[in-house]
Amino acid sequence: MSTTLFRNVSILDSTGADPYPGDVLVEDDRIAAVGTVDPARAAGARVVEGRGRTLMSGLCDAHTHFSWNNSADLDGLGTMPVEEHLLFCIESARTYIDSGYTMCLGAASAKDRLDVVCRDAIDAGRIPGPRYLANGPEIAVTGGALIKSITKFADGPEGMRKAVRELIELGVDQIKLSMTGEEITGTQRAEDTYFSDEEVAAAVTEAHRRGKRVCAHARSAESVRMCVRHGVDIVYHASFVDEEGLDMLEEAKDWVFVAPGLNWLVATLYEAEAFGFPQEAAEAVGYKKELEQAVKGLREMHRRGIKLLPGGDYGFAWTPHGTYARDLEHFVELLGFTPMEAILSATALGGEIMLRPHELGKVQPGYLADLILVDGDPLADITVLQDHDRLHYVMKDGRFHKESPADEAPAPDPGNMPATGTEQLVGRRP
Questions:
Q1: pTM more than 0.90
Q2: Can you say how many angstroms the Cα of residue 30 is from the centroid of all Cα atoms in its chain?
Q3: N or C: which end of the chain has fewer CB within 10 A?
Q4: 123-177 pLDDT, tens per residue?
Q5: Where does the Amidohydrolase-related domain start and stop, copy by copy (predicted)?
């Protein structure tokens, strides 16, 4: 058994409670004790001196694209040779965990097996990366693709069923439907909806029948209503949601997740000029209108208790890999989340969307030891999570991905450290 003691840390446990000072003991891959730790149990542990730094769960990106290659050339996602593309995906996986992200949900892969291969390599310990749920190429109908070279086409209910089966055969964890347009394409409008009810219903039924969830690129009001009506599990964007859609989402809030991908809208509107898409052009095609509409609708979703998670569409030139925590800032600055609410959306809700709420996303006994030690207080300044230099430790499965030997201390001596207070413990798994 390997043991690690984080001593004298500020514990942000993602239960909603205020942070509190204490120690956290990790045994093998699990959190064994939180708060006051019995020195006898910690004897011989590797000790990390927290010195009051914040210990919290690793973060979740609910809309991940390992294969988006930091380019302004959208078509290049399809033309990039698969060998180089896989290497880029491996680098993306490392960048996510470097950034404190230990949970990621794949939102589409640019080529058939890129996500699946990376997931399997991470699970096997061959490459560093977050816990990952893999996707395949997004499914679009004829005339509805955002980027043709990375799209799997299907038409009609039977075509949808066949496409879903083929992707499941590749080994994906979820299916992605590309239901609406995207203004940057120049031809596909965000408020256009390309799927029929019958097509959505067929895709979702087939996926669910085989134990897979469905996520959807759904910007238009009509597409959001379709998603809820037919059981799409994860709605991406929802920029133009209307009152009926809000009511439907609220009624379905026990099972549906919304991941708006706010930084894509902000950066495309204000930060893409150096890559050939100035603000004037972005406003002309409707991105300012979309951002305003999205913020209004998402604020209302937050008020109604609909599950909103950060993350989305990182990996373009103006939304580069490694900048993922900007979405947390947007949740606070644009949507009115408190910093605590934003962190809960990226940790506790992350555990939920990863289908493991009982063991991911919290600093609690029995949970998997996916932890980050932060130099600073993210409740006072949410942007501290964007500074990689202030993520002093990153742990996944009880093993350090990033560490600082300067913080090492001698192991506790149980003879000189009597236990005080009440210890929260779970037994070590056999």
A1: yes
A2: 21
A3: C
A4: 999 999 999 999 999 999 999 999 999 999 999 999 999 999 999 999 999 999 9
A5: 55-399
